[in-house]
């Protein structure tokens, strides 16, 4: 590869808001046939908001929100931020949290106002011996709309659901269509539940996805895809934005970090997308192929 044509390619990419850290990434990008996409913040806007609270007697929506928002003050998860923001907008009286614990991939626990709280996915509830049956159909209905329903337990009793919505970016579907037209297989990974993942994948036009993937397992998924392609010389790319995505971005052959994402993601990726759009990935692949054609 002539250094000159690579430099030109890197320059053209920069004009499109695609920052390529190493010239080699352009060469690797021309060999991509599979692209792994994180869901939250990559396909979706990554700005979840609370849409609905469901409370089981004797609890009220207000009680649930007060306790949940107080608890989530201690978490840095985007879902936590959504609940805290909603609590602020409803002017709940925030209380202090004791014994806070984050359970990665599952949720959070802690003590507020002397109540033992659990907030998170179905697995968090069942792992703690709570039966979610009475809320199962409601949770299913919310998840089928692409929302993330989180279950809440108060003092070992199921108390309700707080549901959060994080819509897909307006251009994700079109960008994914372009990637498919370039012959790229697109695979979505998410820690979210299967029904929510399925709804989002469908809205985005993705036919392969893996849900309920634990943060530490994202990189392993990338590695498995690489193993499948090892003999063909084809490469696996990954696009993500979160702290969770950093190991998978580093593992992939070309990592694309969403420019508004976390610093760790940006540092782990070869390419930064300044426009926060998946069109940047399609642009980069097109450009890499054109550049490599000129070299040959
Ligand atoms: P993602 O990055 O896709 O959101 P995570 O692995 O961080 O995936 O989380 C998986 C699931 O665990 C979430 O969908 C949610 O149900 C639950 N969860 C994680 N963090 C929290 C939190 N701070 N509060 C409530 N639920 C949480
Ligand atoms: Mg994300």
TrEMBL record:
Keywords: ATP-binding, Cell membrane, Copper, Copper transport, Ion transport, Magnesium, Membrane, Metal-binding, Nucleotide-binding, Phosphoprotein, Repeat, Translocase, Transmembrane, Transmembrane helix, Transport
Coiled-coil annotated residue ranges, if any: none
Signal peptide: none
Protein localization: Cell membrane
The keyword Nucleotide-binding appears for this protein: yes
GO biological process, one term: copper ion export
GO cellular component: a single term: plasma membrane
GO MF annotations in UniProt: ATP binding; ATP hydrolysis activity; copper ion binding; P-type divalent copper transporter activity; P-type monovalent copper transporter activity
Family: Belongs to the cation transport ATPase (P-type) (TC 3.A.3) family. Type IB subfamily.
Protein name: Copper-exporting P-type ATPase
Organism: Endozoicomonas elysicola
Entire-sequence positions represented here: 395 to 690 of 753
């Amino acid at each position: 590869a002539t250094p000159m044509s690579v430099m030109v390619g890197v320059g053209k990419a920069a004009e499109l808001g695609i920052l390529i850290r190493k010239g080699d990434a352009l060469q690797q990008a021309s060999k991509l046939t599979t692209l792994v996409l994180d869901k939250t913040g990559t396909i979706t806007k990554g700005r979840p908001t609370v849409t609905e609270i469901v409370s089981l007697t004797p609890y009220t929506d207000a009680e649930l929100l007060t306790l949940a928002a107080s608890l989530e003050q201690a978490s840095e998860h985007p879902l936590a931020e959504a609940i805290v923001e909603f609590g602020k907008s409803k002017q709940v009286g925030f209380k202090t949290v004791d014994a806070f614990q984050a359970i990665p991939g599952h949720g959070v626990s802690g003590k507020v106002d002397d109540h033992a709280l659990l907030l998170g996915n179905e697995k968090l509830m069942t792992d703690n011996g709570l039966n979610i049956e009475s809320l199962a159909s409601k949770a299913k209905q919310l998840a089928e709309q692409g929302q993330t329903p989180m279950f809440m337990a108060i003092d070992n009793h199921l108390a309700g659901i707080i549901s959060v919505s994080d819509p897909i970016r307006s251009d994700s579907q079109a960008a994914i269509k372009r990637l498919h037209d370039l012959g790229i297989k697109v695979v979505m990974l998410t820690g979210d539940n299967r029904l929510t993942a399925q709804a989002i994948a469908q809205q985005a036009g993705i036919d392969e996805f893996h849900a309920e993937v634990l943060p530490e397992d994202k990189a392993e998924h990338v590695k498995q895809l690489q193993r499948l392609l090892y003999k063909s010389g084809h490469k696996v790319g990954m696009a993500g934005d979160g702290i969770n995505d950093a190991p998978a971005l580093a593992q992939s052959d070309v990592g694309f970090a969403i420019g508004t994402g976390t610093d760790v993601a940006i540092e782990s990726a070869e390419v930064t997308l300044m426009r926060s759009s998946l069109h940047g990935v399609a642009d980069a692949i097109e450009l890499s192929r054109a550049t490599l054609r000129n070299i040959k």
